[in-house]
């Protein structure tokens, strides 16, 4: 296995890519099968993976007319940080698999676009190196068995200037991702988890065929993460705390009661428990339960500017964008990610105008209706 892209991306003319689906098709054509499947795949039968997209497609936005809107303002604030779009780049592991520039290239593009970039615990570049791009950074934390390492990562994130701490709570163990198992997926020698020691098990070191990433995380992650740990973390950092992976309104309420500034309604892009509720279906109930006590962000299935509008109309403060960013990285490195964010901005701006919305706040006041099978 290896990364086929050259450091400058070696990409076709990015201007020929007119939507995020074009970017995905171009990336799929470039990447080795195992890397492609690692990015695209979900867990189990991939029911939730497909349901995320179907649920978003089933949300009809009811536009306002005669609004007199000539120019739409896409700017907003996300977890206390200014953003040019109601979008942050989601935490995604091992980005050097997609392109040698990895997280540094992605963060540079996000910074230029004016959107926050979330550094992952399983980043293939260290937070200190990524911070040199000048991008607005959040830091994503998986709960590790080594509590000392958790404290160390929090301290490093603060020292590097990260503006929020995002704890992912839906991975007590990694979901069984059959594509990775079938491919015997493991990392090449030049890609590693920069924030962890020991690295990921190589294919030739394993006694059984399976996913080396899953084996490593089962050793490093602590499945016993509980509410007391969230309380402990809240006392250990001055950064705003974001809890990612919430679907039940009761859990969302508890998060804000414990001091979280925001929750992310997410099913991990269909990569954890298969068969769970699509994020778009869970979102309105979480928004209602939180009732303004904290921000509610959304991810899982966002593939364009209209999806951002849909999420806002359902009550979200903003969205986290995942796989499309990696496809852009694979196609053209920093330039490829920049193209993805440029397309998203253009689509979202047009969606605001067509919906009669002068700004992000107006979009959150739009009505929605179900348009899928069984809708009235």
Kindly provide the name of the CATH class: Alpha Beta
What is the alpha-carbon Rg in Å?
Answer: 20 Å
Extract low-pLDDT stretches: 1-11, 199-209
Range of helix content: 40-55%
**Number of E-type strands:** 12
Strand order of the largest sheet: 4-11-10-9-8-7-6-5
Distance between the termini: 50 Å
The largest sheet, given as strand count, sense and whether it forms a barrel, is: 8 strands, parallel
Our count of domains comes out at 1
Number of helices: 14
* CATH overall fold name: TIM Barrel
Q: Give me the CATH superfamily.
A: Aldolase class I
Question: Architecture, according to CATH?
Answer: Alpha-Beta Barrel
Summed over residues and divided by their number, the pLDDT gives a mean of 92
Helix vs. strand class: alpha/beta
Q: Topology as H/E string?
A: HHHEEEEHEHEHEHHHEHEHEHEHHE
User: What is the general shape?
Assistant: globular
Strand content: 5-15%
Keywords: Flavoprotein, FMN, Oxidoreductase
Protein name: Alpha-hydroxy acid oxidase
Organism: Saccharothrix xinjiangensis
Family: Belongs to the FMN-dependent alpha-hydroxy acid dehydrogenase family.
């Amino acid at each position: 296995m290896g990364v086929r892209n050259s450091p400058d991306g070696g990409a076709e003319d990015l201007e020929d890519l007119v939507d995020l689906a074009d970017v995905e098709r171009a990336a799929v054509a470039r990447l080795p099968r195992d890397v492609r499947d690692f990015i695209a795949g979900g867990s189990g039968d991939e029911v939730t993976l497909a349901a995320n997209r179907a649920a978003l497609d089933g949300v009809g936005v009811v536009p306002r007319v005669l609004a007199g809107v000539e120019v739409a303002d896409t700017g907003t604030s996300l977890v206390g940080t200014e953003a040019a779009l109601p979008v942050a780049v989601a935490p995604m592991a091992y980005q050097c698999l997609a392109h040698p520039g990895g997280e540094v290239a992605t963060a540079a593009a996000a910074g230029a676009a004016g959107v926050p970039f979330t550094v992952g615990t399983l980043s293939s570049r260290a937070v200190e190196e990524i911070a040199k791009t000048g991008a607005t950074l959040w830091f994503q934390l998986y709960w590790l068995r080594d509590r000392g390492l958790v404290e160390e990562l929090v301290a490093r994130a603060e020292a590097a200037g990260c503006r929020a701490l995002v704890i992912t709570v839906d991975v007590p163990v990694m979901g069984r991702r059959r594509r990775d198992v079938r491919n015997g997926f493991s990392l090449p020698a030049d890609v590693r988890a920069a924030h962890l020691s020991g690295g990921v098990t190589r294919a030739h070191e394993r006694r059984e065929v399976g996913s080396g990433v899953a084996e490593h995380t089962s050793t490093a992650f602590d499945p016993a993460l509980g509410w007391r740990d969230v309380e402990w973390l809240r006392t250990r950092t001055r950064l705003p705390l974001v809890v990612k992976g919430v679907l039940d309104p009761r859990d969302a309420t508890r998060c804000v009661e414990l001091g979280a500034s925001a929750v992310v309604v997410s099913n991990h892009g269909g990569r954890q428990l298969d068969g769970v509720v699509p994020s778009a279906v869970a979102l309105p109930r979480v928004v209602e339960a939180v009732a303004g006590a904290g921000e509610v962000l959304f991810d899982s299935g966002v593939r364009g500017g209209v999806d951002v509008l849909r999420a806002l109309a359902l009550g979200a403060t903003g969205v986290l964008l995942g796989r499309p960013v990696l496809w852009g990285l694979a196609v053209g490195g920093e330039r490829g990610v920049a193209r993805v964010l440029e397309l998203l901005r253009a689509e979202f701006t047009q969606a605001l105008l067509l919906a009669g919305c002068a700004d992000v706040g107006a979009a959150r006041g739009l009505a929605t209706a179900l348009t899928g099978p069984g809708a009235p």
